[in-house]
Amino acid sequence: MLQNHETGQMAEDGNLTTPSTLRIPVDIIPIDMNGNITKAGWTFTNCLITDLGAPKFSEENGTEQDVDVTFTFVTRVTN
Known about the structure:
The chain is mostly beta strands. It has one domain. It is built from no helices and 6 strands. It is flat.
């Protein structure tokens, strides 16, 4: 079972015959300021987001948004 720490609600995290519907794969791909891929990155499997921060951006010049995300995962694969 997984528990939402803010609400206290719990949900089943899947079982041996049914995969979890709460977990997703996450790909991290490093890019530079020009949008060029700098590394192959990583793939994280069976991720569960445990904390998602509010977006941070500049209203003055429209720069990209930054969001802090914390997640748990089962495996990490270097691409």
